[in-house]
Amino acid sequence: VRTAVRAGAAEVNLVYRRRIEDMTALKEEIESAVAEGVEMLPLQAPVSIEVDASGACTALLMQPQMISACSRGRPGVVNAQKPVERLEADLIVAAVGQDVVSSPFEAFGMKTHWGAFTTDEFLAAEGFSNVFVGGDCQSGPTTVIKAVGAGKVAARNIDEMLGFHHYLDCGVSAPPPRMNDRTPKGRVNLIERPVKFRKRDFNEVEIGMSSEEVQQECGRCLRCDCFGAGASCGGRIQYV
Q: Which long-range contacts (C-beta less than 8 Å, at least 24 apart) are formed by 214-220?
């Protein structure tokens, strides 16, 4: 929707069948979209697209929703006993997320649950000792850093399965930790360019840190490379 604003659309609406607080987007992104003029239409489920004689879309028909019982950790939605609503539109863009194409793997014998492959604590696919899984296809939608961690775990376990116990030498060594300024400081918040400017171009929305801000952020580092135990150290199972 923010791209549509920058592409010159006179009016942009976001139709979402759940509540705004249920959106799988950063709060800052939602607030920025609203500031740029996007109208949020939550609790509206698309039903059909209305077209004219030439086949061009003229409107989106939406069924109002209501919150129901929780499902998979968050409130579900069901059709509300309200009439279908009509939203005039010249262009409709479907943005319904992504999914894992699991059917070929299921035909091979791999087990899934809610579209994600089931694994043991070593990320080996259930029923297979030589097939490892990681990322969204194992955990479901989550952060990039967790997917990277899962990849490291899978790589180490593949190494173990092949009879090795390698440790890669990257050719550098981390300097020893030194005492630093432990004065509690808040995280530096990046500010954004004014809406009236940023909505007209595709330049970066956020303004980068100053040298002073960078130094303060670096001072907050807790040296996880020396004191932490991430997914690639201290074991061969996935830690969450």
A: 216/185, 216/188, 217/187, 217/188, 219/180, 219/181, 219/185, 220/185, 220/187
Length of the chain: 240
Q: Which residues pair with 62 in a beta bridge?
A: 46, 85
Torsion from C-alpha of 98, 104, 110, 111, nearest 10 degrees: 50
Beta bridge partners of 60: 49, 87
- Cβ atoms of 129 and 110 within 8 Å: the answer is no
Phi and psi (nearest 5°) for 86? -120, 125
Nearest to 110 by CA among 99, 97, 120: 120
Residue 206 Cα distances to 3, 29, 126, 236, angstroms: 15, 11, 44, 38
pLDDT digits (tens, 9 = 90+) for 53-105: 999 999 999 999 999 998 767 788 999 999 999 999 999 999 877 778 889 99
Residue with tokens 């932490």: 228
Burial environment of residue 188 by CB neighbours within 10 A (0 to 12, 13 to 18, 19 or more): middle
Q: Report which of 7, 85, 75, 98 is spatially closest to residue 48, judged by C-alpha positions.
A: 85
Distance CA(89)–CA(216), nearest Å, equals: 48
DSSP 127: T
Instruction: Please name the residue that has the structure tokens 């808040």.
Output: 186
